[in-house]
């Protein structure tokens, strides 16, 4: 922090400047070595795609998916088809239709069940409402 040191640092030294002008530096990157795998080359795995089977819901979902995968709309569609017609939409048929593994389809059908919306008749709604009101009083 002393002024003498600051002055010494900022002072030009002509002798050092002349020596610095005589210095020439040339820099080159070393040549790049490519590792030789001994002729072994990994094949480029190109992912196979398939067009989705969306029917009238095609505006709601993607148009192409990788083989072995399904879109959300397809999943809901196949689960609903299986639920409504299990004898027609078997796990085997779904696996073939959507290019899926059979064990994955079996897991999908076992663990993912689409819910159903049930609407109660108006008379039942009134009974439920009045029953709940009686409980509250």
TrEMBL record:
Species per Swiss-Prot/TrEMBL record: Pomatostomus ruficeps
Quaternary structure and interacting proteins, as annotated: Binds calmodulin. Interacts with NDUFAF3.
The name this protein goes by in its record: NADH dehydrogenase [ubiquinone] 1 alpha subcomplex assembly factor 4
A Pfam family assignment: UPF0240
Family membership noted in the UniProt record: Belongs to the NDUFAF4 family.
Source species taxonomy: Eukaryota, Metazoa, Chordata, Craniata, Vertebrata
Entry's Gene Ontology BP terms: mitochondrial respiratory chain complex I assembly
GO CC field: mitochondrion
Domain of life: Eukaryota
Alphabetical list of InterPro entries matching this protein: NDUFAF4
């Amino acid at each position: 922090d002393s002024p003498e040191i600051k002055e010494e640092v900022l002072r030009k030294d002509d002798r050092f400047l002349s020596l610095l002008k005589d210095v020439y530096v040339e820099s080159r990157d070393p040549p790049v070595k490519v590792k030789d795998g001994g002729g072994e080359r990994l094949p480029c795995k190109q992912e196979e795609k398939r067009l989705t089977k969306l029917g009238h819901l095609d505006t709601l979902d993607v148009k192409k998916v990788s083989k072995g995968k399904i879109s959300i709309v397809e999943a809901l569609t196949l689960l609903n088809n299986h639920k409504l017609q299990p004898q027609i939409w078997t796990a085997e048929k779904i696996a073939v239709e959507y290019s899926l593994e059979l064990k994955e389809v079996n897991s999908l059908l076992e663990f993912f069940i689409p819910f159903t919306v049930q609407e109660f008749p108006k008379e039942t709604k009134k009974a439920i409402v009045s029953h709940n009101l009686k409980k509250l009083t």
